[in-house]
Structures are given as C-alpha cells and as structure tokens.
Amino acid sequence: MLLWLRQYRRALLAGDLTAGVVVAMMMIPQGMAYALVAGLPPVAGIYASILPPVLYALFGSSMTQSVGPMAIVSLMTAAALAPMADPGSALYLTLAAQLALISGALLLLCGVLRLGFLASFLSRPVISGFSNGAAIVIVVGQVPALLGASLPRWHGPSALLGLGSLLLLWLAKRYGAALLRRGGCGAAAADTGARMAPMLLVIGATALVAAFDLAGAGVRTTGHVPSGLPTLGLAASPAHWRTLLSSALLIAFIVFLMSMSAAQTLAQKRGEKLLTNRELLGLGAANLASAVSGGFPVTGSMSRSAVNFSAGAHTPLASIVTAALLALALVAPTGWLALLPLPVLAATIIFAVAGMLDAATLRDAWRYDRSDALALLATSAGVLLLGVEAGVVIGVLLSMGALIWRASRPHIAVLGRIPGSEHYRNIERHAAVTLPHILVLRIDAGLFFGNVDAVCVRVEEELRARPASRDLVLVLSAVNQIDSTALFGLAELNRALAARGVALHLAEVKGPVMDRLKHSTLLQELRGPVYLSTALACQDLVKDGA
Which domains are delineated in the chain? Predict the structure, then answer.
C-alpha cells in the first residue's frame, strides 16, 4: 500500500497536477450527469467523486485509474432502487448509499478471499452486448430531458439547447484536436483540450441561461446545489438489506469488470502490472467511502482514466488532486451550478454513452464465432427487454453455458502418418496415411465428467466406421487433466473394448496427467505400455500385428 508514494519523484509532480486539474474540470458535469442517471440529486455525483478516488489511491494498484460515477453503474443503481423508493426522496438517497456500502463490502470480501479470477468468466462479446444494451437504455431515458418534454412533443428552447449541445460535442470530438494542433498546441495538449469540450459547454450554457433568463422560458435547470463538503455518516434502512443484496452483488461484479478493463488497457501502455486482488480491495474501499459521504456505487471509468492518462498522470496523486479540487468547488459558492440546464447535461450523457456502442465486436464475433455473436445479441436484448440486472444474469449464464457446451464437445481427430515422416496429423486436413487395423485418435481437450461420455460415443462411432481395427491409440498430447469420472470412463471403455478384441493404448501423456494416472489401476489394465510418441506406438503395434 502507498508504494507509489514512497517511490515518488519530483519529476512526476507536474504531470500529476495537470492531470488532476483536467479531470476535475471533466468530473463536475460528468459526475452531476451520472447522478441524474442514477435518480439522485446532481450534487451526489460530486460527493461520489471526492473520497472514493482517495481511498482507491490508498489500496488500488493502477497508477492512472480514475474512480467515480460511471454510466452503466448509475443505470444499475437506478434499476435496483426505483422499485423501492421515489427517485430523489430521502429513502432513495439512503438506499443508494446502502447499495454502495454492500457492494463495497462484497468487493473487499472478494479481495480478501483472492477471488479476482472470477471476472474471467464473462466473455468479451457478452460484456460488449451488456454495454450496448445499457447505452441504448440510457440514451432513450435521456431523450425527454434533452428535448424538454416527451416525444412527440418537445419544448423549443430546451430542444434547441440540447440538440445544439450534441452537435457542438460532436464537432469538438471530430475537429477539436485538429484545430488546436493547427493553433500550435502539441498533440497531447490538443487531445486533452478537445476532451474538455463538455466542461466548456456547461460553462457557456450556464452563462446563456443566466444572461437570457432561459429558466423563466421553461428550460429546466439543476436547481439548488448545496455548498459545503458532504457530511460523513451512514443512514441505513435495515428493512432493505436483504432486498439490496442481489443487486449489490451484480453491481460489484460489473464494477470490478469495468474497472479492470479500463485499468488493464492503460497499464499495458506503460508496462505496469496490475494486482487483481488489490484492485478488489481498492474498489471496495472506494465504494465504502462513497457510502459514508452521500454517494452511490462507483467504479473506474475508461473515458476519465484515458483523460487522466493522456493529461500526464503518473501516479494516484493525480486523483487526489482531482478530489481536492472538487472539494474546493463545493466549499466555494455553488450558485452558478443551480443554473446548469438539464438539456445540456442530457446531451453530455448521451454523447458519452454513445461511445459505449460497440459494433466492431459484433462484426468480428459474427465472422469468427457465431455463438459468441448470438450471445452478444441475446445479452443486449436481455438488457433492453428484461432490465439491466436480468441482462447481467443472462450474460453470465451465456458465458458459462458456452464454456460448458464447448468443453462437453471436445474436438477429436483421426490421425494418420504424413508420408516420409514420423509426424501424425488429422486426416481431414492432411494427406495422411492410416493403417487398417490401428485407429489413432487425438483428444484435444481435458477429460472430465462433462465430456467423457461424448468421447466414448465418438470412439464407438469411429470403431464402427473401421471394423477391422484391433488397436485403438488415444493420443493425449492436448489433455491437461483427467478427473475421477473420466478415469472411470476410460477404465470402462478399456474393458468394453477388450471384450470385443480391441486393445486400448495411450500415447503422449503429459507429465502431470501421468503422475495422477500412476495412482490408479488403469495403467496396469492396459495391454501395453504408455507410448512416448504416436510414431513409436504405431511402429510397435505394426510389429505385433505382423
């Protein structure tokens, strides 16, 4: 913990200070916007951006991760709390903090138990499908705020402000960096400057509201934003602990998954090493800090972390600087925040989450593996039709189901010898020669209770297709494990084959697998030795059959 601080060098300070200032400017509109997505007062988004990054800096392992509110987690928070209380009510605020508390406790527990590996069980296509579905839900939910009213009606000034903001954000992203480079800015400074477009837009829109009294014309604003730091404490609702547990579990899972995705991407660029279980501890501590400071569940954000990285952050000191500046913003007069127009906040939300839409993964998955592509589409459909939590569950079940389905149907190849060599290859891919009385099968997966029956069925099919076979050689070069059920299955197969006059042989057994087999009776029941190579097995069996 705090190893980065003990090794800190003065040369890193300028980059960390710059990144801290830049991210703080980004966090004010973004934090307030994501609080609205969560159904909370805008100031809750700033509350959730002060203590959480400080605690993450103490316990996390990423040097450039920016922790705070994030679109998907905000949407999940709203989905979990909406059935229990009215958005914005006192009970709703209490439940939001309680949800962060439970999520943080679960993350801490997983970190202590070293369960970080569990995140690997959600495939990238499923993550993409979940993100796509959540992005669409968020965009649709923000349309009324963008236009000032529900479709097909809209409020003219609000719609003009909202749609104009979307256009300006798009222009800034498309042309902003190039214009700044033409003006003499360096590449890094130009990219960072272009990312500041949301903050500049918020300042400009707030000035317009004040100058032309747009609030009096019907444009909705954030309203009163209380000044001062959040009060530390935890108001809990004991009756809702059990109800919130399932939602907190899913949110904790997504928090870790999204955060690791962002942190790993940036760590690879600098050759840094992430400690998975330290990340769990850091994210858990951050969510506990959010819970006691009037916030809601938080996570690492890819967009903010990328800005933090590109702005020059070298260590978590940048996030501490950001938190300090946000705290100062609340201590200073906050009257100007009350004039911030909701259509502009809606535009920033829509523009931010639109970047989450991922068509490339669907396209690549459709070309490479249709089952992954279908899992992506099913997860998106689950989010859209059944809700965010159901979408997460569908994604997890599809990931695990695809894993089990593939493992239960291992690839098995019939091998033959490549003429003029001792190499044995799949006869469907190579012009390989087989022997009439020897059947050679290579099993390309570990053998366990879920696939041993399928392997035995395939063996019987191949033997029926080759009735002259007297010897069956199973090549286990790709088999990393054989569990007890598979061992019993192989023993039964050996006895059944022996009764029909067919001998079972093993070849190219890996060392760890061989070590386990020595503790069984299978090796003694086989007719011959375990062969070092397929070529040696076939040579020996040809001699015996001559």
Answer: 14-358 (no CATH), 412-545 (3.30.750.24)
